């Protein structure tokens, strides 16, 4: 796996250059941003569906982002000066961050709480009062998040459960409050401790949580990269890279297993 901070891509990317039209229009920064926010998400979804590694997503987003920027002869700033490429790249990166943040709307409230807590505290402890305020904003309670099996609250302090603290016999079919967060962390834990075959066997049990569990890995990788939590980032990157093999193993295993009922997710 490529190291974080390297300019080399772990994934294979094909770039196609096109000549800009001679009659290319001039646009403003505002209109460029509107176009970027309208068109970039579809390109990013295609990259994710192609299983682009999280470590490569930011650099890969440059292609479709610059395709928008270079369709114009000039992008004018508010003072009528042409926008520099450096600025365009910064705006593309901001649009990527917004896209990943907006995916949180697909997650359950417990997971949204966990993401925000992770972004500010990582796996460390924080004050119970801060957690309760955050939980209320997410429409949940600290006790509820604890009952979901992703949080521990003790002595006026709160922290997220580490992967090694998760129950070894975790079964999403018997859980009363399944979450995307718990699904992602258990997939990683299973893959790290038992290998891809066991993780592949777990995947079908997640039902509709499976794809969002992978999406969450992209989101958490982005947070880890900004915070420079290299070891934690590698875990999320490894899950996405292994995803095609996990789905293959899951499909292979389903042939020899009875089809389970709907888990109601």
Explained architecture:
The chain is mainly alpha-helical and 265 residues long. It folds into three domains: 78 residues; 55 residues, Orthogonal Bundle (Arc Repressor Mutant, subunit A); 77 residues, no CATH class. It has a three-stranded antiparallel β-sheet with strand order 3-5-4. Strands 1-2 form a two-stranded parallel sheet.
Task: Kindly list the characteristics that best describe this protein.
265 residues; Arc Repressor Mutant, subunit A; disordered N terminus; 3 domains; mainly alpha; three-stranded antiparallel beta sheet; disordered C terminus; 11 helices; two-stranded parallel sheet
The separation of the N and C termini measures 34 Å
Fraction of helical residues: 55-70%
Average pLDDT confidence is: 88
Count of beta strands: 5
* Helix and strand sequence: EHHHEHHEHHEEHHHH
Oligomer: single chain
Radius of gyration: 21 Å
The total of helices stands at 11
Taking the sheet with the most strands, its summary is: 3 strands, antiparallel
Number of domains: 3
**By helix and strand content, what is the structural category?**
mainly alpha
Low-confidence stretches: 1-9, 258-265
How is the secondary structure organized here?
Elements: E1 26-28, H1 29-49, H2 54-60, H3 62-69, E2 74-76, H4 85-102, H5 109-121, E3 126-127, H6 128-137, H7 142-147, E4 151-154, E5 157-160, H8 180-194, H9 196-202, H10 209-227, H11 230-256
Parallel strand pairs: 1-2
Antiparallel strand pairs: 3-5, 4-5
Helix pairs in contact: 1-3, 1-4, 3-4, 8-9, 8-10, 9-11, 10-11
């Amino acid at each position: 796996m490529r190291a974080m901070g390297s300019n080399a891509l772990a994934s294979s990317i094909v770039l196609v250059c096109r000549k800009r039209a001679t009659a290319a229009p001039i646009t403003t920064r505002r209109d460029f941003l509107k176009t970027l926010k309208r068109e970039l998400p579809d390109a990013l979804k295609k990259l994710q569906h192609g299983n682009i590694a999280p470590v490569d997503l930011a650099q890969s987003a440059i292609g479709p982002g610059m395709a928008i920027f270079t369709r114009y002869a000039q992008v004018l700033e508010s003072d009528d000066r042409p926008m520099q490429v450096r600025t365009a790249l910064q705006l593309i990166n901001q649009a990527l961050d917004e896209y990943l943040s907006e995916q949180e709307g697909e997650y359950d409230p417990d997971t949204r709480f966990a993401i925000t807590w992770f972004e500010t505290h990582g796996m460390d402890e924080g004050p119970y009062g801060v957690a309760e305020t955050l939980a209320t904003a997410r429409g949940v309670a600290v006790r509820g998040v604890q009952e979901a099996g992703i949080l521990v609250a003790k002595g006026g302090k709160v922290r997220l459960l580490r992967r090694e603290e998760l129950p070894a016999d975790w079964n999403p079919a018997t859980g009363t409050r399944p979450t995307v967060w718990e699904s992602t962390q258990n997939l990683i834990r299973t893959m790290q401790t038992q290998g891809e075959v066991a993780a592949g066997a777990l995947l079908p049990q997640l039902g509709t949580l499976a794809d969002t569990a992978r999406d969450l890995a992209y989101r958490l990788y982005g947070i880890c990269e900004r915070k420079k939590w290299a070891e934690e980032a590698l875990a999320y990157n490894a899950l996405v890279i292994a995803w095609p093999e996990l789905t293959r193993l899951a499909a292979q295993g389903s042939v020899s297993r009875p089809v389970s009922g709907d888990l109601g997710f």
